[in-house]
Amino acid sequence: MLCQKLLLLLLLLHLAPASFASTEIASPRTWERQSSLLNREQQIWQVAVHDSKFSTIPHVSATAGCGATSFPEPIATPNLLLDRGNQNIRISVSFIIGTDGRVHSPLILEGAGRPEDGNALNTVRTWRYRPATCNGVPTEAEATIEFSIR
Is the full-model pTM beyond 0.70? Predict the structure, then answer.
């Protein structure tokens, strides 16, 4: 029993210095790489400003005009993240807000290139609205949004 305890103690004493020796000091090149990555990350995660315009969609089946209308109200519209490397980014997207408050049929009207346009479409698809109403009844509305870096 005593032999087993001594053997375990020797094993622990032998392994303990190895666990402390694994700490290393970062080289200056590692610090440069990390600061470069942080700068790049801050450039990418800049928020784009968006400006919305709404209009109701006239329906053929509607016999009478709307006496009381309301435009859609945004519930969840997260901002689009654009790369600040290009300061002249301007993306215009048209879409329909359905009676369920979800975005349908987003379409790029004015684009800035493949990756940014895809990010804009994916972002707009996640948005949720309180739908527009016509005499208290939810109705579809068309919206145009413009993203730009200011």
Answer: no
List of residues 6+ apart from 50 with CB closer than 8 A:
77, 79, 80, 145, 146, 147
Distance of alpha carbon 123 from alpha carbon 107, whole angstroms: 12
- Tell me which residue range forms the domain holding 102: 50-57+68-150
Has residue 120 been placed in a domain? Answer: yes
| Residue 42, domain member (yes or no) | no
Number of domains the chain contains: 1
The DSSP 8-state label assigned to residue 60 in this structure reads T
> Tell me, what DSSP letter sits at residue 116?
H
Does residue 21 lie in a domain region? no
User: How do residues 117-139 score in pLDDT, each as one tens digit?
Assistant: 998 999 999 999 999 999 889 99
